From TrEMBL:
This is histidine kinase. GO terms for molecular function: kinase activity. Residues 70-225 form the CHASE domain. The keyword DNA repair does not apply. The chain crosses the membrane at residues 6-27, 291-311. It is found in: Membrane. It catalyses: ATP + protein L-histidine = ADP + protein N-phospho-L-histidine. It holds the Pfam family CHASE. It is an enzyme of class 2 (transferase). Its main location: membrane. It comes from the Bacteria.
Amino acid sequence: MTTLQILKYLAVLLIGSSLALFIFFSINNRYLLQNKSAVDSAVTKSVIKLEDELNKINLVVESMAFFYENKRYIPQNLFERFTDPFIKELNGIKALAWAPKVEDSLRTKFEEYRTITQIDSSGQLVRTTSNNVHYPVTTLNPVAPFNQVLGYDVFSDSTKREAILRSLKTGKPAISGPIQLISEADGVRGILALKSVSSAESPKNKGIVLGVYRMDKLISETLKSEIKVFNLCIHDHEAGDTLLFSNIPTSKTHKDQYKKTIIKKSINAIDRKWDVHFVPKQEYLSFPHVFESYVVLILGLATTLLLAHLARRRDNHNDRLEARVLLRTGELEESNKQKENLLREIHHRVKNNLQITSSLINMQKRKLVSKEAITALEDSQARISAIALTHQKIYQDKDSKAVNLHEYLKDLMEYQNKISPSFSYKINCPEISIDLDKAVPLALIISELVTNAVKHAYPDKKITTNSVST
């Protein structure tokens, strides 16, 4: 495996894995954005719903106050008929009530039919101590579950008293700070929504109408769908950020989450201000781990591995083909080399055979006395030597395919010069190569020309110089 192949496989794996991871995180990020949008939408709707519910409370106590302003006395059954629609419509309502103003001077007369009570330090209802003014509950809807509340002096508790005094001062509805509900022993906090009622005949206060709300019911019934998205806690800003309601877990992990993900909103609760802290639930904050994203990731990684495997198989196939080509090329080169050696050997043997033939002619020449016969044999010997020289040059050539013409002419003239040393020569020929088919005829022609030139060019005087040019 080459370095280039390794880099190619790594590039395929890196690009494929990066693309799969990018799509994986893109899908999950899309769901994260959807969750964030769902949280923001739920928070906005919650604020609107809570403010609407508080406005409904305001309208209810205004209606009850108006009802009592125009009546001298309202019996229990009439009060129930009037307030039943409110009980059904209001979220988190525990009871609606009427508490007339009873001055301490009239307390004895009032207690002829109902004792005025308050809550002691142990949480029990006991007869109230002397105060200048009392606001005992006399009419209640529903009455059956809360009989023990009848006669309870709302003015005996400081938190409730502060709300009553505020309403007396402004003449408008008021909401109390967080209170402990008398009828509930589970520590759940509640609030009072109340309004002072003046007599139609006299502006003097004659009592208060009030609605008792349980905070957990108010939140769960008002925010039925939104409460699935987040936890929340509500603090009464006017009471020094006293906690009104909270469903946020108290573990350290959730406290850390609370600090990081809190969304703060303020709500106008009639004449008070509530600070609401929304904390999105874990499933809306954590990584979504969407199933389809894992499918895409697995398919992407599998495809990447498959591509790398296919690339590797293709490279292996190419390597095998290349090895076969190299092997076949080597075999062909070896075969060609053997053929060239064989051809060179053939040329060598032909040259040797021609030299043997020349030697036989030379032996025959020594036995002859006739000049014409000797000359004829010498001419044949020259021709044979020219051909032999051609074959010698062929097998001496590295390719065994051609003859260097310049070198051939040089060797040919040296041979002729040995036969007839009485002449000199000059070769004027470029460095070119010719094949055997052209070399043999050319060798015979040049040998014949040189032989004739030596014999016949200058018959009357000694030859000193010949020039061979081609």
